[in-house]
Every structure is written in C-alpha cells, then in structure tokens.
Design goal:
This protein is of the alpha/beta class. Helices cover 55% and strands 14% of the residues. The chain is built from eight helices and five strands; from the N terminus they run E-H-E-H-H-H-E-H-E-H-H-E-H. Strands 2-3-1-4-5 form a five-stranded parallel beta sheet. The chain is globular. 34% of the residues are buried. The chain binds shikimate-3-phosphate. The site of shikimate-3-phosphate has 9 residues, from loops.
C-alpha cells in the first residue's frame, strides 16, 4: 500500500474523522483531518473563521491545506464535507491518494449531527435537514468521483474493514 494516501470524502457527519482514525491505527499510518489543520494554522475554530472572514476565506485555507497534505504519503486524510466544491481539490487529492466516499442518507446525517457538539456554520439554519438535502444533492456528483463508494451506516469497525478490503483489492489491481 506504500506511496499512496487514503482520502475520505463525504458529507458533514458521515464519520470521516472517526473512521479515518481507525483505518490509520490499523495500518500504522498517520492520520490528519483538513479541518484540524485549518484550525491549527488559523489559530481559531472553523466557526470563528466563517464568522470573522467568511466562507470564501475558509475555502482558500482549505485549498492550501489540501495541497500541502496531498504531498505526503501513507496518510489517512479526512476532509471537510465541502472540499469537493473546488474541483482542483479532488484532482490534487486523487493524484496521490485513493478516494473513498462515505455515503449516508440525509436523515441519518441529520440524526448524527444533532447529537454532536461541533458547530457547522452551514447548518446553522432554520431547516437543517432541508439544507442537508439541498447541499447533498448539489455535491453528490462530486462525491461520486471517488474511487470507491462505501456505505457509511455500519459501525466504525465495519466501515474501516470495508475501506481496508477495497484498498487491498485496489493494490492488487
Ligand atoms: C463543511 C464541512 C465541515 C467544515 C466546514 C464546512 C462543508 O467539515 O469543513 O464546516 O462545507 O460541508 P466536516 O465535514 O468535517 O463536518
């Protein structure tokens, strides 16, 4: 599996970070999350970046982080749900990584997000489920460009198993 990264894409709340950590642990690879990197670089939370400088600025920071992380290898990279908005990001990540889309239905995404503490500025709206449906529809064709589509609904172990199995098969291609 050497020389490649594993890149997890998909909507907010689809388990990219939790599953990514588990995949990295099992492979003995390092794990990195684009949102964490952005927060570290900016010295503030994603919510504060959106509030202070706006989404466009956040997307510029995200693109810089993507370029930097794509230059690594043997890493599991969990991305923010909107990373696919810029087609360059997908191409950059695909040049050095195998892309996995963790797919979930909008209702399941909503259920998970409601139970989490993290503030997602794009979902701070009157009708979050409606917004999840709308954004998902807008982004679906971009997520579908992943090398593999993984059902995100299982346990963390099951989803990690599925990714590693696909990765092994891909290696032997
Ligand atoms: C976003 C997803 C978030 C974060 C930001 C914007 C999006 O990451 O990058 O709030 O546009 O879907 P997660 O997918 O990790 O929640």
């Amino acid at each position: 599996m050497s020389s490649w990264n594993i890149v997890l894409i998909g909507f907010m709340g689809s388990g990219k970070t939790t599953v990514g950590r588990e995949v990295a642990r099992r492979l003995g690879w390092s794990f990195v999350d684009t949102d964490d990197e952005i927060e570290r670089g900016a010295g503030k939370s994603i919510a504060a970046i959106f509030a202070d400088e706006g989404e466009d600025h956040f997307r510029r920071l995200e693109k810089e982080v993507v370029c930097r992380l794509a230059a690594s290898k043997e890493r599991v990279i969990a991305t923010g749900g909107g990373v696919v908005k810029d087609g360059d990001n997908l191409r950059t990540l695909a040049a050095t990584g195998v892309l996995f889309w963790l797919r979930l239905e909008p209702e399941e995404i909503y259920r998970r997000i409601r139970g989490q503490q993290v503030v997602r500025p794009l979902l701070e709206v009157a009708d979050p489920l409606g917004e999840i449906r709308r954004l998902l529809q807008e982004r679906e064709s971009s997520y579908a460009k992943a090398d593999f589509i993984i059902d995100g609904k299982g346990t963390v172990d099951a989803v990690a198993d599925a990714i590693i199995a696909k990765m092994n098969r891909w290696r032997g291609r």
